[in-house]
Design a protein that fits this description.
The protein is an alpha+beta fold. 32% of the residues lie in helices and 29% in strands. The protein has a five-stranded mixed barrel. The chain has a five-stranded mixed β-sheet with strand order 18-17-19-20-21, with helices on both faces. Strand 17, helix 11 and strand 18 form a beta-alpha-beta unit. Helix 1 crosses helix 10 and helix 2 runs antiparallel to helix 7. The protein is globular, with a radius of gyration of 24 Å. The structure holds adenosine-5'-triphosphate and magnesium ion. The site of adenosine-5'-triphosphate (ATP) has 16 residues, from strand 8, strand 13, strand 16 and helix 10.
Length: 416
């Protein structure tokens, strides 16, 4: 894409009322915009990154047999009364009807879904009633709503945010546990592909209001994370705060020497057992014709939080540094008054399928380079009078700052 066509612009100005580094950088670079506390618009560059994150998640959920669908953002109160969460979930947001002509509509009260167990369980019950229909898993990637108190961590904690939520349904606890392990491994693959595999720990957490002993969080070590975890560096797993109060040793190797670290919870998986199937009377008929309760598990990941965490983790004093798999563009091509040459290279790279942001604007060299550092694409290619007279192009790697002078052929080999 030509940067002269991009409708957003960068700014040096720090956004007002924005304490978090991720939101400061993303807003300055024109990736997101804030409409109110905890609610962000995804602008073209930010939307590209979010889509890449979500597509990686999608591929790994498809690989474990998840069937993608798309559920409503609104649901009736009654579903939440059934599970008790109308009372117990204190972040639940409600939408009120507003229609002067009709009292019926005006008095209506809906739930803005914060998660979808209350929606998916009755749907599953409509279709899967025999042991022959089980197991199966369904997922969606969608916007969630939670009335978080004082959201001031940018994308790390939104009142409106993105979540991938997968739900699985089984004939027994044993089968649920088998699939749960499979999804756990899929999650590790996702975080590896997102470039944060080495710093993301499976973390033992309490089961929350669910009926099981443990759930598993995926915590990414990050200076500005809101959570504290206790890492066993030998086993590469961690305990969260609540679990540490119950047990203070590594559950795998009994190591007592756990390392305290700041982290952000990027994913969380729960064995739900029969909590929601009981609430919705969801039974199946087994081989012998007997009625049996369905076992469930749920599996969440936060793509928008991930985007914020990745910004925070990798940024330097000049701007963002995107892992290659999720960068808005792989290459940032900068023309310093050499648009004729640069136009040609832009076309060549595009034809090779390389994603290029081409800075063809009439602004100073300094501004172009500062913007390039702020935006954080992994490869910067520069064409100037100097490189042209040397018959070369300058390639700079955003993460290591390594600079190489290459011929066009060498550059193309490297980038495609
Ligand atoms: P937290 O403890 O951080 O409030 P949670 O445990 O309530 O999160 P879950 O219900 O486990 O969140 O949601 C699944 C995933 O959705 C989380 O692991 C996180 O990645 C993401 N997520 C949850 N709340 C938010 C939020 N307010 N903003 C952005 N992402 C969120
Ligand atoms: Mg959680």
């Amino acid at each position: 894409m030509r940067q002269s066509q991009l409708f957003t612009k960068t700014t040096k100005e720090l956004p007002k009322d924005e304490a978090s580094l991720n939101a400061q950088l993303l807003i300055r670079a024109g990736f997101v915009d804030k409409i109110m506390a905890g609610v962000y618009e995804f602008l073209p560059l930010g939307w590209r990154v979010l889509n890449k994150i979500e597509n990686i998640i999608r591929e790994e959920m498809d690989a474990v047999g998840g069937q993608e669908m798309f559920m409503s953002a609104l649901s009736p109160k009654e579903n939440w009364e059934k599970t008790g969460r109308l009372e117990t979930m204190n972040v639940l947001m409600k939408a009120l009807g507003a229609n002067k002509e009709s009292r019926e509509i005006n008095d209506a009260e809906y739930i803005l879904n914060s998660t979808h167990e209350e929606v998916i369980t009755p749907i599953a019950k409509k279709f899967a009633l025999s042991y022959r229909d089980l197991p199966f898993s369904i997922y969606q990637i969608q916007t969630k709503f939670r009335n978080e108190a004082r959201p001031k961590s940018g994308l790390l904690r939104g009142r409106e945010f993105r979540m991938k939520d997968l739900y699985s349904f089984h004939v027994s606890q044993e089968d649920m546990k088998r699939y749960y392990e499979e999804v756990k491994q899929a999650y590790l693959k996702i975080f590896k592909r997102l470039g944060i595999g080495a710093d993301t720990y499976i973390t033992l957490a309490s089961g929350g209001d669910f009926t099981t002993d443990f759930s598993h969080e995926f915590q990414t070590e990050c200076q500005t994370g809101e959570d504290e975890i206790h890492v066993c560096d030998k086993c590469k797993i961690a305990l969260n705060k609540e679990v540490l109060e119950r047990q203070s040793i590594c559950p795998e190797c009994e190591n007592k020497d756990l390392r305290l670290a700041k982290a952000s919870e990027v994913g969380n998986i729960f064995p739900l057992n029969t909590k929601f199937s009981k609430a919705f009377d969801y039974y199946f008929t087994d081989k012998e014709g007997n009625k049996q309760i369905v076992y469930m598990a749920s599996y969440g990941i936060g793509p928008s939080r991930l985007m914020g965490v990745i910004v925070e983790k990798f940024a330097d004093d000049k701007g963002m540094i995107w892992p290659e798999n999720i960068a808005p563009f792989k290459v940032h091509l900068l023309s310093l008054n050499q648009n004729e040459e640069a136009d040609k290279l832009y076309e060549v790279l595009k034809d090779l399928g390389v994603e290029v942001l081409y800075d063809d604007r009439e602004v100073s060299a300094g501004e172009k380079m500062a913007d390039s550092d702020l935006l954080g694409c992994p490869f910067r290619v520069l064409i100037s009078a100097k490189t042209k007279s040397a018959g070369k192009l300058e390639l700079k790697l955003r993460d290591s700052n390594e600079v190489q002078m290459l011929s066009e052929k060498e550059l193309i080999e490297k980038l495609s």
